[in-house]
Amino acid sequence: EAQVTQNPRYLITVTGKKLTVTCSQNMNHEYMSWYRQDPGLGLRQIYYSMNVEVTDKGDVPEGYKVSRKEKRNFPLILESPSPNQTSLYFCASSFGGQPQHFGDGTRLSIL
Amino acid sequence: AQTVTQSQPEMSVQEAETVTLSCTYDTSESDYYLFWYKQPPSRQMILVIRQEAYKQQNATENRFSVNFQKAAKSFSLKISDSQLGDAAMYFCAYRSSTGNQFYFGTGTSLTVIP
């Protein structure tokens, strides 16, 4: 089954404690992306990757890091999380101009 | 950066009736893709419909169709014969054919009244 898998689904943590949200896709897609969703703001792109070792900033990259060492994986790293990064996060992948496949989301709360 | 505007934060429709959700976008590009995604309370993002800008024909998927007006930069979604399961947040999205970023609108929350 074609899917994008994010883990964890829910996480409550404290300010400053490094965390990683993993994302994996099994469709051999070249393009992968991270979004955050906040009420009234829709989805905003954090980072995206066109292929292995190729990543670029989206609209809201501050406070986040990503890496793309393998085609299937695209983890999102918060080195020093802060409360303003409390949000719902989505990973997505696609091929070319095709629609993106989304993961089920990660609800992140930073106290 | 491109912008996508959904001017209706909330909409409601009677079951079995038709509703249209609006979306406008700002771009200087001639070739791009437009999408409508549905997000039910389960928060999954589900593709509803896709339109390529070079195609003049409006996309249709069963009860869902779009009115794509390229010159006006408008991309509205029409839902016919609305069902209770259509209740969700709907997002309009844009991606250029050459660029790598996706841009989403702020969403329209659709309520279906039995």
Describe the structure in your own words.
- The complex is a heterodimer of chains A (111) and B (114).
- By secondary structure, chain A is an all-beta fold.
- Chain A contains no helices and 11 strands.
- The model of chain A has no long low-confidence stretch (mean pLDDT 95).
- With 114 residues, chain B is mainly beta.
- In chain B, 0% of the residues lie in helices and 54% in strands.
- In chain B, the strands form 3 sheets. In chain B, strands 2, 5, 6, 10, 11 and 12 form a 6-stranded mixed beta sheet that branches.
- The radius of gyration of chain B is 14 Å and the shape is globular.
- Chains A and B meet through strand 4, strand 5 and strand 9 of A and strand 6, strand 10 and strand 11 of B.
What's the layout of helices and strands?
The complex is a heterodimer of chains A (111) and B (114).
Chain A: E1 4-7, E2 10-13, E3 19-25, E4 31-38, E5 42-51, E6 54-57, E7 65-66, E8 76-78, E9 87-94, E10 101-102, E11 106-110
Parallel strand pairs in A: 2-11
Antiparallel strand pairs in A: 1-3, 3-8, 4-5, 4-9, 5-6, 7-8, 9-10, 9-11
Chain B: E1 3-5, E2 10-14, E3 19-21, E4 24-26, E5 32-39, E6 46-52, E7 60-61, E8 64-69, E9 74-79, E10 88-96, E11 102-104, E12 108-113
Parallel strand pairs in B: 2-12
Antiparallel strand pairs in B: 1-4, 3-9, 5-6, 5-10, 7-8, 8-9, 10-11, 10-12
Summary tags:
heterodimer, A: 111 residues, mainly beta, 7-stranded mixed β-sheet, 4-stranded antiparallel β-sheet, 11 strands, 0% helix, 51% strand, B: 114 residues, 6-stranded mixed β-sheet, 12 strands
